[in-house]
Amino acid sequence: MTINLKDVEHVANLARLELTETEKEQFAGQLNAILKYAEKLNELDTDGIEPTSHVMPMANVMREDQVRPSWPIEKVLRNAPDEENGQFKVPAVLE
Fold first, then answer.
1. Residue 59 lies in a domain
2. Is residue 53 included in any domain, yes or no?
3. Predicted confidence band at 58 (pLDDT cuts at 50, 70, 90)?
4. Which residues contact 2 (CB under 8 A, 6 or more apart)?
5. Structural domain contains residue 10
6. How far is CA 91 from CA 33, 50, 94, in A?
7. pLDDT in tens, 12-51
8. How many domains does the chain fold into?
9. In a 3-state reduction of DSSP, which class is residue 84?
10. What is the CB-side half-sphere exposure of residue 14 using CA atoms within 13 A?
């Protein structure tokens, strides 16, 4: 697969970028170099290799939830710019 100037122009249009002819040629060359390098992966023998999402084995390192008392509402709202009925009051975002 190769990237031509039309492909670069299409991607630039989607990204709302204005490119000069020199930039288009430069990006086409760079993208083709990236694809050529990625094609080297097809040369690797991956038979018998199990697919992974990480190089190292991953395990859940989160602690179990523990029930504990909440802070008093007066302490929570002490630094609030405005409060109403024990809740933070914020400006309306919808009209």
1. no
2. no
3. confident
4. 32, 35
5. yes
6. 52, 53, 9
7. 999 999 999 999 999 999 999 999 999 988 888 888 888 8
8. 1
9. strand
10. 5
Q: What is the mean pLDDT of the chain?
A: 90
Cβ neighbours of residue 35 closer than 8 Å, sequence gap 6 or more: 1, 2, 3
pLDDT at res. 46: 85
- Its domain, for residue 12, covers 5-40
Distance separating alpha carbons of residues 40 and 52, to the nearest angstrom: 19
Contact 4, 11 (CB under 8 A): no
* pLDDT of res. 75: 92
The 10 Å Cβ neighbour count of residue 8 is: 21
Predicted local distance difference test score (pLDDT) of residue 4: 94
Position 95 scores a pLDDT of: 75
53 three-state secondary structure: coil
Contacts for 33-40: CB closer than 8 Å, 24+ residues apart: 35/1, 35/2, 35/3
**What is the C-alpha separation between 56 and 73, in angstroms, rounded?**
44
